[in-house]
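HUMAN:
Just now I want nothing more than another pair of eyes on a protein record. I would be glad if you read both lines and explained how they fit together. I have put the entry right below:
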Amino acid sequence: MSVGTPRSETFVQDLRDLVGDDAVVADADGLGRYAADTYWKALAAQASGSPLGLPDVAVLPADEAGVAGVLRFANERGLPVVPRGGGSGSQGGAVPVGGGILLDLTRLDRIVEVDEESLTVTAEAGVNGEVLERALNERGLMLPHYPASVDLATVGGYVAARGSGVLSTRYGKIEDLVLSLRVALADGTVIETVGVPRHAVGPELTQLFVGSEGTLGVVTRASLQLAPLPAARRFEAVSFASVPEGIATVRSIIARGLRPSVVRMYDEVATRTSLGPVVEQELEGVCTVFCFEGEPAVADAEAETLLALARERGAVVLDGKLGETWWKRRYEFYKPPHHPQLPAIWGTIEAVAPYARIYDVYRAVKEAVEAPYAEHGLALKVHFSHWYPWGTMMYGRFIVPDGGPEAIDLHDRIWADAVQAMLGAGGVMNDHHGVGLKLAPYMRAQHGPALDVLRRIKEVLDPNRIMNPGKLDL
């Protein structure tokens, strides 16, 4: 495909006839807004005037029929289609590296139904997370997801990137909250998966599209599990003597059946340089914030059990108000002045592993990037924020103050070394941020021959390979 060809007047007018004049963007300034999500390489390239990719045209359909029509239009012509929600992704999943059509889903913004009896909500893909949460809270309900990107992210993005939020230890990630989906396929066919996730009428197709990042189809609508707003939230904070001691203690409380909604464990560096500045306290050690929620008596019983176990293991119990402050300021970690700005290099080295291997993964990543890149001023701040019965994840934010003229190469080398280290130690290279462009080169190392199964599925659903090319290494 010639990048210039689709922008002919006839092409643009055909799209306008299909979805309406106001739903098509073809001017340079308008298209420039779609050059990057929050992926560092895309932002750096955009700032340098050489974006990683630009769409030939952007389309903002108002409904599912419009999405299906645009896909049929593109499929007949072999044009790439890149779905985009709020643009909050950190992996380059919405960067249009192949040109073509940028499918902006933000006009699909209806909350279709709130079923208070079944505790479910059905919402279109473009519904903003913050807007949805306010609407649910007015009814005494919540979608217990709460990602750091809630002000930008959309329902479709939650699903497409297989995301998570701060309450995941109790309620699960988005794949645990999704009940069913409506999806527009590459040829414009719209399918709806079985309305509940627990059934025996064949494989569960919903999960095929969760985490597929628009490479297999476009999520147009999702039904999600809700929860009542808790009657009480109790926050506690504990300082452990070491990361292994903290991991062992949290593993123990989860094994005993306690289900905190929040477990945020900061290693020594992150405690001092990340948590401390945001809560405006001088902190040392491995500080961990807990939240227990639900009926007051239950939350109190779980919290007291946790504190007793922590004391038995030699942990120092801190003032629970630290946890309350963290909750109120939890999104500030990702905004200036706590979030870096260009010309700095930054990224989240994220890995997940069983309890038996997670400390090895943590240590391997630190050894791979701290000393080798110390000459560049690299700082690595790690916290553990999503906990499961079988394991947990590490969220390692690295920052290089100024990468200089070799910033792109330096960024890529840091990532290559980190991924090799985490895979070599028995970890999985991502817990909840998706793959996009950033991790696509490592999908073969992660999946092995199973990647070919995903590619065969892609070939059937998208034989003309129009759906979000370059992502997921499909």
Observations:
- Residues 111-228 form a domain with the Uridine Diphospho-n-acetylenolpyruvylglucosamine Reductase; domain 3 fold (CATH 3.30.465.10).
- The chain has four domains: 5-104, 111-228, 232-334, 345-432.
- Residues 3 and 99 are 6 Å apart (CA to CA).
- Residues 1-5 have pLDDT under 50 and may be disordered.
